[in-house]
Amino acid sequence: MTSGLTLTGLGLGAAQLGNLGRTTSDEDAQGAVDAAWDSGVRYFDTAPHYGLGLSEKRLGAALAGRPRSSFTVSTKVGRLLVPSPETADQQDDGGFAVPAEYRRRWDYSRDGVLRSIEASLHRLGLDHVDIVYLHDPDDHWEQASTSGVEALVELREQGVVTAIGAGMNQAAMLAEFVRRCDIDIVMVAGRHTLLDHSAQDELLPLAEQRGVGVVAAAVYNSGLLAAPRPQAGANYDYLPASRELTERAVAIAEVCERHGVSLPEAAIAHPLRHPAVVSVVLGARDAKQSRTNAERLAASVAAQLWDELSRLGLVPGPAAREGRAS
């Protein structure tokens, strides 16, 4: 990666620390970070969006006291948190079980980016952030790719940020960021998985060519690949999976079983096969989930599994990473 940062192969995604979907206790949030750390994780990803700042506060508290040079933190800009006392007695409508004390305002301007980073540093209790992503700029390409990137470049030059990039649930616009902007890293969510291979069309080859690191997130596609045997009604990209997708996931699971690998283990191993991918980020709500993530990453996956999946047309065969099964 051009920034010189080195990320652990497994990162902890901290959306659950912001009460994603339901309440997570302070104790469980601390336990998730501690167990991840004990498992060797040194990369932690958060965002103001996650629980209206709660995730950043909890992550900062959980990492406090550890040597700053020993871990990497990424956060995001683009959703500026604006105080909203008139809705403080209501529940957040952004998917997090927190009071609506703030409202999110899309803002990729220089001022918006600088204000967002200043607030994030305060919540995290840090004097610098290792990575900052432009968060979900799908409908804001013009501002994000100009003033947004320019503000992040300024912060990078000042040493407030080490690496900059964008994080999205699509591959096409991320490829445009890599092609047109001075960025170091991208986070692609759900588009480089056993079921969605769209990042392999353009984003991954381009990132490898330009020396831009790729972090793979949402590798379970929000649920369908999270269990050894996909169940009817499981989610795919936050909605009930179609019958066709479920049948395809079951077919992949059956191949995995023949090779002594679980579907979630293969889902984690698959993105790391491509040399452009520098880390896989998985969420965890408590210590048990963090330990499970690490155990799944450590599973041995033989090359024969990928050979059979490719032969059956279920998963394409990307460029193999040196020294890893492929």
Automatic annotation (TrEMBL):
InterPro entries: AKR, FDH-like, NAD(P)_OxRdtase_dom_sf, NADP_OxRdtase_dom
Occurrences of domain NADP-dependent oxidoreductase (ranges): 10-301
GO MF annotation list: oxidoreductase activity
GO cellular component, one term: cytosol
Listed Gene3D superfamilies: NADP-dependent oxidoreductase domain
Protein name in the entry: Aldo/keto reductase
UniProt source species: Prauserella cavernicola
